[in-house]
## 1
Amino acid sequence: MIRTAPVEGFRGLVRRPTVRLLRCLLPYWRRLVPAALAAAGSELAAAGLMATAAWLISRAAQQPPLASVSVAIVAVRALALGRGALRYADRLLGHDAVLRAVAGFRTRVYEALVPLAPAGTPAFRSGDLLTRLVDDVDAAQDLLLRVLIPVTAACAVAAAATGTATVLLPQAGVVLGLLLCVAGLVVPGSALLLSRREGRAEKAARAELAALTVDLTLGAADLAAYAAGGRARARARLASARIAALERRKALATSLASGVVLLLQGGATVGVTWLALRAHAAGALPAVHLTVLAVLALISFEALTPLPAAARRLTEVRASARRLADLLDAPPPVSDPAVAAPLTADEPLGAEISELRVRHRPDAPPALDGVSLRLPPGRRVVLRGASGSGKSTLIAALMRFVPYEAGSIRVGGREMRELRDCTGSDVRRVITGMTQDAHLFHTTIRANLLLARPGATEAELREAAGRARILEWIESLPDGWETLLGGDGATVSGGQRQRLLLARALLADPPVLVLDEPTEGLDPDTAAAVLADILDATRGRTTLLVTHERSGLAAADRVVTLGRGRIRSAARGGIDGTQAAVPPQHVDPAL
Ligand SMILES: Nc1ncnc2c1ncn2[C@@H]1O[C@H](COP(=O)(O)OP(=O)(O)OP(=O)(O)O)[C@@H](O)[C@H]1O
């Protein structure tokens, strides 16, 4: 289903993209909380095991009765086994929760993108768009797995270690708590500040590299033809080198931070042990507590070691969240009305376009200005015109891909509905077909056609292919309907590609069929043959056919010519481009 609503939580908090990202993941809290608890439990068990073992060894040296250490012996066994079990649960629950959360989030981002396409996404280059959909959405995974879960575990261990040390020797607790705060907050915070700019720059550089890579791949033939491959590769190399330099700078900040945490760990161990020794010498601390305090100071920093790396990941996550926010805040070119009028298709439908004005950008001249056109039920209207005259814009407005600022488009049978009052998905259920940039997917011929009507029967598939005059060819292939097509029909000829796209549009069988330049890129003979087949196959269907062809239009019910966004002439069917067209006011209004 096409959603026009933004991804929940992504609008509103304009300046806090990371918080917005987090809010999008909140619905998964029931799975995320046990994962975070298991991670914290595993770290606590490791620290508890070391501290209890230290106590047990020191106490055992005093040769006490076995009963007085039996609880500690059981605790050591339980903690050793529990640590492994909790580590396993942490990995299992953490990955399960995070992969589900990211999969759900990616679907919602994609759904939010659909209303932007095809008119709203040209602002983003295709490689960059891909990076946003793949890498930037994956940042949500890192936010949970590499930032939030380690931070939760580190906080739990630091609090438990400081609490235990304070109970045993208050001044040692204060020193340990302070140094843990510095290692857990100040050091990662500084690393975050140092690598913040690099994180943002690296995301932008990666997006640039992805866009360049897509250009290099898709434009390989043109780059080779114009000997421009060297320059393009040099730009890609430069982008790679920039990423490497930024990575190095970030790695330096992280290693420095890790080094400082190690120094603090040493300092805390020495400081706490010295305080404990003094207290023991003064008779205020039993010897067994002395060992526990020294071990506690040493191991409590272990849980903090992933924090500098977590800070570094956080800079990348923030940059990704900002880029996702940019994408998702892009206003959809056409929004659905709050209360949509229903569009039914239980009778033949037609369309009436009246005084239509469309602008692609507010500051651009109108692509269509005062265009009026009738598409009577069951008639085939051909729309011709020079390149840039507005033919595709008219189709896009009819399919609710672009908005119109003045005039009206009404669709229906006996009762007509204004398109503005209907949802885009309802409109495209009744007005659809072959858009100018129609795409053949890298899958079988059958799957490519079924895209238009997944429930179509074998007979319907064969009928559509037959009407597009491609059935014989499909059935002559060794794999027939199961033949795999290359990306965008790379493994078929231009004529076969257009006929497959036509078969798909015919299979969709919408009440109003639109075909935007179905003969584009074909040689004149093939184009004439395809056009004649199209006009034959669409007899009795409401059809708007856009073409550059001048001949072969004799079978059309009406031929309308656009020029610079206005209707230049209109003529009843039976003419072709070689005959003079009559001005629009002289055309039979029934057409
Ligand atoms: N997304 C867009 N943003 C800005 N301007 C656009 C956009 N799409 C089309 N235009 C402009 O609108 C005008 C009409 O373009 P349109 O694609 O409708 O022409 P066309 O008749 O279909 O041309 P062609 O036969 O070459 O496909 C042109 O001036 C074009 O530059």
## 2
Amino acid sequence: MISVNEAKNSIYLNATRLPPVVLDLKDAAGKVLAAALVASENIPAFPQSAMDGYAFAYEDTNGAALTIMTTIQAGSGKELLLQPGQAARIFTGAAVPEGADTVVMQEKAKVQENRLSIEDPLLKPGANVRPPGSEIQSGQPALDKGTLLTPAAIGFLAAIGFQEVPVYPDPVVSIIITGKELRPPGQPLTYGQVYESNSYALKAALSKAGITKVEVLFADDTLDQVTELLQDALEKSNLVLLTGGVSVGDFDFVPEAAKACSVNTLFHKIKQRPGKPLFFGKKESRLVFGLPGNPASALTCFYEYVLPAISGQTGRPLSLQSVRVPAKERISKAHPLTHFLKGYYDGNTALSLDAQESYRLRSFATANCLIVLDEDQYEFEEGALVEVHLLPS
Ligand SMILES: Nc1nc2c(c(=O)[nH]1)N[C@H]1C(S)=C(S)[C@@H](COP(=O)(O)OP(=O)(O)OC[C@H]3O[C@@H](n4cnc5c(N)ncnc54)[C@H](O)[C@@H]3O)O[C@H]1N2
Ligand code: MOO
């Protein structure tokens, strides 16, 4: 068995970026740039008015009124040349005509019968004019490789003329649910059956992370069927999540099926609770997680290991945020395993909730964090600092 840190390190080393794709800018929000972008034009492309007002040459403002020759609306394609003594009515965003270099806002000007008097003692040459290329110049770096495309970054790229961008795609995910005892919710249970919940929780967690290309497959607990579905999943996905069948029971076929599909085992079993039997393997660049069947174990492993793996594939910052906060009440544990406890963080302290058993999701359903207790520490007094991983809301 390896430690939590060793497991996380293995994921960090093995979950490498997926081959880049070019996406329409509209579809690229939340993705990460796979190459540096360079501006191909000056933006603004022309001297641009920053105010509704009047454009003129600053050196003409010697007290004499100017003659307003024309009106220039934003988007007007008219190219004009103002002569000395002339001004143009202009609006925010419009091109400042040749012969003009300054704009006075209309609140600081008076117009009488087409004659403009400027009443702005603080006006400077070039005031209220955005120079061409002042946002970015042709040939200048726009955004670096590895930049997360936030709404502002998407807007910026649109504003400087990019219509499509190279990004790391999200993985295509296959979920294989194993277990003969499982029935979909909504159907009556016969003796020995349990409702299937892992596909629901995992799909919801993937969707929360923006991952939508997800297929769910169901396997009985036979080596042949698990192997067949895994083989199929490996052909069409970048990430395969199996649940159940990773422990030591006679019907736990996931590690064997992985071997049969030439998946290289990177680790199996971690010194942790829940989720001790977690399996991680790789075939070429495809990643395979065998998540323990117990619902709280599967979801905890998803948050702690699968999300960082998707971060590795996409460059997106998906791993849970970590903070150190005081424990609200004393916490103790008996085993030399890292514990991930369902907790509630109220902004000041973290409380360990009831119902921590890995077959239960009841406390997980209201938890907003996982409290992480080190492998080799057993007692945490009230007020002691504990590591808390914040769950996506
Ligand atoms: N002798 C040992 N037995 C077990 C050990 C061990 O070390 N020695 N480890 C235990 C731990 S810890 C875990 S976790 C489980 C993991 O077992 P599997 O991954 O093989 O999972 P299953 O046996 O298939 O199922 C466990 C449990 O979870 C329920 N389950 C499974 N899939 C779903 C699903 N999709 N939705 C809802 N519930 C599901 C299943 O019915 C079982 O109750 O092994 C322990 N045993
Ligand atoms: O690891 Mo199991 O997940 O403790 O029940």
## 3
Amino acid sequence: MSEPILSVSKLNFGWNDRQLFKNLSFALQPGTMTSVIGPNGVGKTTLIRLLMGQLTPASGTISWQHGVKVGYVPQFRNLDDEYPLTIRAFVQLSQQRHLVPWHSAAEQKRLDEVLAATHLTHLQNQCLGMASGGEKQKAYLAQALIDNPSFLVLDEATASLDVATKVELMDLVKELNQKMNLTVLFITHDMDLAKQYTQQYLLIEKEGAALMPIDFMNPESMPKELRPTVETEDK
Ligand SMILES: Nc1ncnc2c1ncn2[C@@H]1O[C@H](COP(=O)(O)OP(=O)(O)OP(=O)(O)O)[C@@H](O)[C@H]1O
């Protein structure tokens, strides 16, 4: 096994007197796709904030492989029809942090690559406000990819999208995972997508958390919601 891209060891964290994580330990290998599942309010977003360094653990360690850049795709929130930037300009915002009327050849090239990788080239001059929900979410994905991250966090990024659009977005993420060895952490309540696209899950429950393979050969080892459904024949 190679060196983990992310290792969490004996992490403890709580809000006020409510302990969320007690000695949480797990490690993710580069190039894996992992879903993070668990009931509302159990601490999934808090875990992401700890991983991104926005919160400090009470104790324990979070270690990233040297030099790892993390991209982040938020939950879909609709933008107003009036939102004026084109898809290209919107994606470019995260490249330069501000709009300027000139771009270096290297920046243009990277932007072209990312627009192509996210299947947005033909839409790049369209106003983002007029784009469909799926196109908007792909533009957020493109923004997250512009700095060439090796680790991508999808923070309920498929919630509020219709089924076909969820699948389209996750197919794209899978393609990036395979072509660029992107490591993916996918926070979701959608068990079907977790089963379809990730090899393992980090299950966070009130009593603790565990990283488990999505093991279709051993359904009993999986939480009820993740077990394959067995179709019974009508007699
Ligand atoms: N800044 C904060 N101060 C105090 N408590 C907080 C804060 N942020 C989150 N919490 C509490 O921590 C718990 C975990 O919240 P968190 O948002 O991490 O859960 P979640 O698993 O992401 O939930 P959901 O599935 O609903 O998005 C909740 O009880 C929440 O109220």
## 4
Amino acid sequence: MTIKRYAVIMNPYGGNGRASAVWEQVAPLFANSGVETVVYATENQGHGRVLAQTLDPLTHDAICIVGGDGTVHEVANGLLAREDQARFDLGFIPAGTGNTLHDHLGLRDAEQAAKTILRGMTRAIDVVRLTTQGEPVYCVNIVGWGAISDIASLAERFRPLGKLRYSAATLCQICRPRLRKAKLTLDGMMSQDEFLLVIACNTKKTGTGMMIAPRAEIDDGKIDVVVLRRASRWQMSQLFRAIFDGSHLSLPFVEYHQVRSFGIDSETCDTLNLDGELTGTTPFSAEVLPRVLNVFA
Ligand SMILES: Nc1ncnc2c1ncn2[C@@H]1O[C@H](COP(=O)(O)OP(=O)(O)OP(=O)(O)O)[C@@H](O)[C@H]1O
């Protein structure tokens, strides 16, 4: 019998530092199933990307990520930037705060996620390739702009609040909404306006349990784009109340599109929210790469 050897990329910082304990909890399941594991703890921001870009494909059969959406983002970017085009199957063990990709794939806890990896069944998922400042960035989960970036920035400062940090940041943002002028292009159709937010979603949820894109499927070759142009504080609070069950789609001021490509060119150079990470800026263009990552699910 050939012994499988999986790399475990673990972020000891995310999820308020619980990743090591999460890994300790599930490591025996791998050992008992005859899967050898080599743990690589990330030492700083961006290290997950470097690890995935340089991992030896001759000595590792797959990558398990122990962390949240930010760590998945880094590993996916490292993998898709590899010069040798080597592709590893990816396994996800939730140990971050939001864990929205995990939630979308039905991976509710570490033990269930480990068992899913060990079962060995994979499916292919879409990724968004975004070009910002002439460089490609790959997104698995969301591309956000406007209030979505402002919320991520506040949520980072609220990290000690744990899972509550996204909701708390969203509430603060509702109290001081900021309009931005931009050109928004959806499948080649451009509209110029003022916007509060644009969020393009590959997964149904974002933050902690906000069902922002209830029709999103991770392998349909499309990205679901939610657009909010001008809205009063009252309308914003309506949106916030409805967003947890997806009923905001019936609100007349909320637009919902399913597209293959999109882009934003804003009047100011704004930071983007890419899979929860504040990185990249406008202007950018983006397209869906259908089913380019193989994941255990
Ligand atoms: N050793 C480290 N020290 C500091 N930051 C790190 C380290 N390793 C990784 N990071 C950064 O930690 C950030 C958060 O990681 P991650 O997304 O896994 O957790 P989270 O933010 O709590 O979860 P989620 O994104 O699901 O809400 C990422 O930006 C990543 O680059």
